[in-house]
Amino acid sequence: MNPVAFTVGGFEVRWYSLFILFGIIISWMLISKEAKKFKIENDFITNMLFWVIIFGIIGARIYYCIFEDFSYYSKNIIEVFKVWKGGLAIHGGILVGGITLILYCKKYKVSVYRMLDICAPYLLFAQAIGRWGNFFNGEIYGSVTSYEKLHSLKFIPEFVINGMNNGGVYYTPLFYYESLWCLLGFIILIIIRKLKYTRLGFTTGGYLIWYSIGRFVFEGMRNSTFNLMLGNIKVAQLASIIMFIIGFMIILLQSRKPKLTEMYNSKEKVEVINF
To answer: What is the C-alpha to C-alpha distance for residues 45 and 24, in angstroms, rounded to an integer?
Structure first.
């Protein structure tokens, strides 16, 4: 699979970058639309997402470089900036991007949980799209399998099966499984968020729990060549456990708040933000 989509003036534009960009644009539009229901100005969303995305990408890249090969990247700093070649760790992006969102909302006195709840489903949607960049980069493989076994799984398209052929050896398309998992999670979170008595923070907690479960399982199936390790521990699995605990605690703590104004769809708790 050719990772390069096209070349402009000698500069390679990779599918990986295009899928990430596409995911960001679609999610940005959906977040802006949802925020309007709470009278949050589009300028606020635009400025907030700009910084969240910038710092999120920086966090994802630094996280990857630290755990992939810190010795190499510390000696070849220029390689850290070559994001288009791949090498972004979503847990780093979630951590730094999330902190950026929280600080930005606190600065302008916007409900942090409401904003996180607005963004969470669309982050999953963006992740579902972004995983296809891994397909073109030849990343996120599972264990060795066979064409016959993959072909018997009717939900896997033929072109994906062919893309898993590496020198005559077929691999499990984990990128595809994770993309479907994120897409299913996106649908579930949207349904949960529309419920009348869904509390603030439930959608955010649901995101953390849903993604952490899927990532923990898929990471266990992942080809060892592509794992970020901390000693003998897979970094993504450790991060997923932490994410699950945080998500569970958010839901537990928010469920103990008795006020109806803590509901996501409460008309009494509309944010009026003029930016």
So the answer is: 13
